[in-house]
Amino acid sequence: MVRFSRAPRWSGTGGLDVLHPRDAPFQESVVGHGPAFGDVMKAKGRDAHLVAEAVGPGRSADAALWMVDPVEPSGVAWFRYRQMVQSPPACFGGTAMAMLKVERLHPDFGARVTGVDLREPLSDAAREEILAAIDAYSFLCFPNQPFDDERQLALTRRIGEPEPSHVALGQEGRIEYFGTIGNVQPDGTALGNSHKKTVFLTGNNMWHSDASFKKTPAFVSIMCAYEVPAEDGLTQFVSTRAAYDRLPEGHKAELDPLIVIHDYVYSRSKVAPDAVSPSLAASLPPVRHPLVRSNPRSGARSLFIGSHARSIEGWSDADSRALLDDLVEGATEEEHIYSHSWQPSDLVIWDNRCLLHRGTGYDADRYRRYMRQTRVSGDGPTLSE
Ligand SMILES: [Fe+2]
Questions:
Q1: From the CA of 200, how far away is ligand 1's center (Å)?
Q2: Which range is least confidently modeled, 11-25, 32-46, 131-145, 311-325?
Q3: Are 231 and 341 in a shared domain?
Q4: CA of 204 to the centre of ligand 1 (A)
C-alpha cells in the first residue's frame, strides 16, 4: 500500500506500478488520493520524495511520478499511476511538459525526451517540470530541436542565470555566454588536431563537472549540436549520485564532512604547462566545495569531484590524490557510463551538480564538429547549500 503524507490535490483509484531501474516492475495498490509536488510518500515502508510528475501517453489514464528514494541504489524510482478515474488536475494537462514522452537511457540516470518544442517560450508549468526532470534524470536529451544562438540564450535565461565564459571574462574582460565545442570557427573554417585551440579543448576529455572551479559552479550545461563527426566525438556521462549511493554507509560518513579544493590552473596544467594565461589564472583562484553535495529540492546526495578537484582540505597531496582518484575510478566503471552519440539538432541539458562527463575525442583533421554550449549558474556558493 502506498500512502501520502499530505492532503490530496486530486483523487482517483487504480493500480500503481513502481519501477526501480534495477528491479523488475512490481505493483502496489493505491486507494483514494494522489500526491502533490514536494510530498513525501511512504512506499514499501520508506520515505520517497516526489520530484516530478507528468502525464504519460494515455493522459487521462496514466500519470507518471518520479521519486527520489534514498534507499534505492540509483536514488530514483519511477512510479506510474494507472486507471485514474477522475479528470487529471490542471497541472497535468495543457502544458508542454505534460505531453512529454520520456525514455530512460541508463539505469542510473538519463532520459530521451520528446513531445516538446523548446524553441517555443516555456510556460511556468513547463519550466517547473523541466527543472523537476533535471532533478530526477540529471541528463535530458531533446532530439530534433533545430536551434540557433538567440533561441538557446532565451532558453538558458528561462532556466536561470546564464554563466559568462570564464575564458572570455578572464582573458579579455568580456561577457560571452557561448562556448564552441568543436573545431569550426566563426568564419566557417575548421581547425586541425595540432592547433592550440584544439589541444586546449582536449582538457574536456578528462572526467569533469563544468565550471566546478568556480565558487558558484554551473548548475546545468545546455548543448546544441549542429555539425558532428562521422565517427567518435562522443560525450560520456556518469552519475555521481549513483556513485555515492553505491558506497558503504561507513565510507559515506567519512566523506560527508570533507572539503575539496577545485583549481582550474591545476587541471589545465595537465593539458599544457602554458594552457592558462596569467590574467585568466588570476581571475580563477582555487575554491572550496563540499565533497558531498545535496540536491536542495530532493535531498539526494552526490559526489562533487572530477578533473578540477585538486586536493582535500587538510590532507596531504598524496592522500588527497589517492581518495579523489579512487572516487572517480569507482564512479566511472564501464557499466556506469552512458555514452552520448550526438546527432545534429540534439539539444542536451545536463546537471553538473551530480554528473561527470568527458569527451572521447575525434579526428579534427578529418571531421568538422560544431556544438554550442551555454550554462546556467548555480544558486550560490556550494558551502551554503
Ligand atoms: Fe564539459
A1: 12
A2: 11-25
A3: yes
A4: 6
Residue 368 above 50 pLDDT? yes
Q: How many domains does the chain have?
A: 2
172 and 119 belong to one structural domain: no
Cα(309)–Cα(242) distance, integer angstroms: 19
Using an 8 Å Cβ cutoff, are 360 and 235 in contact? yes
- Report d(CA 92, CA 94) in Å as an integer: 7
Q: How far apart are CA 366 and CA 231, in angstroms?
A: 10
Question: Distance, CA 341 to ligand 1 centroid (Å)?
Answer: 15
pLDDT band at 126 (very low <50, low <70, confident <90, very high): confident
Where is the domain boundary, 84, 110, 137?
137
Task: Look up the domain containing 219 and give its range.
Answer: 141-384
Rounded to the nearest angstrom, the distance between the alpha carbon of 352 and the centre of ligand 1 is: 9
Q: What is the pLDDT of residues 15-63, one digit of tens each?
A: 333 433 333 233 333 333 344 434 444 444 444 444 334 333 323 333 4
Do 131 and 148 lie in a common domain? no
Q: Are residues 163 and 301 in the same domain?
A: yes
Tell me how far the alpha carbon of residue 189 lies from the centroid of ligand 1, in angstroms.
23
* Domain closes at, from 137, 171, 188: 137
Do 182 and 283 fall into the same domain?
A: yes
Question: Which pLDDT score, from 0 to 100, does residue 84 have?
Answer: 30
Q: Do 63 and 147 share a domain, yes or no?
A: no
pTM above 0.85, yes or no: no
Q: Are 223 and 371 in contact (CB under 8 A)?
A: yes
pLDDT category at 217 given cuts 50, 70, 90 is very high
Q: Do 107 and 149 fall within a single domain?
A: no
Is the same domain home to 47 and 169? no
Ligand 1 centroid to Cα of residue 366, in Å, is 23
Q: 136 near 52, Cβ under 8 Å?
A: yes
